[in-house]
Amino acid sequence: MQPVPVDKVQFCRACGKFATGIAVLTVRGPQGAPHGMTVNSFTSVSLTPPLVLVAVDHKTRVLGYMRASDFFGINILAEDQQHLSEHFARSGQDRFSNVSWSPGKTGAPLIPGVLAYVECGLRQMVEAGDHTLFIGEVLQASWREGQPLLYFNSRYKHLR
To answer: Do residues 77 and 21 touch, judged by C-beta distance below 8 A?
Structure first.
């Protein structure tokens, strides 16, 4: 008997039971403008070399900038930064409007006050269904003390 793939609703509900952190993926366009989007599909892959992975939906505008850039940033949000998550999740707007940022050592846009950030050099792109997986080697990293912004069961959560 051939297994039948699970339907999209069941798959999303099951995945929603896995708590994730929230981050903002950032990249510079060819003219130097910053671009970004909220992601929760981010994970470490390897310690030697230090590699991370982020998945980007084929429908997002950021995808083209990611494919064209050698560097990107991951800005990991703190529990009091839900507004940044919501802002960078909205489509049809300049997501960096009214958001402070500065270029990191690689030029990747970094958002001040985040819980942590990593700057990455793009090492590999993998097409996977309706997403492209970007694997980056971590070239710079910084963090501060604090609690993360979490997402679980389709809602923002906080550690207690």
So the answer is: yes
CA distances to 11, 23, 62, 111, 142 from 74, in Å: 26, 6, 13, 9, 11
**CA–CA distance, 52 with 37 (Å, rounded to integer):** 17
Distance CA 82, CA 99 (A): 14
SS3 128: strand
Q: What would the pLDDT profile of 37-64 be if each residue is shown by its tens digit?
A: 999 999 999 999 999 999 999 999 999 9
Residues 6+ away with beta carbon under 8 Å from 73: 25, 26, 27, 104, 106, 108, 109, 110, 117, 118, 119, 120
Question: What's this model's pTM, rounded to 2 decimal places?
Answer: 0.93
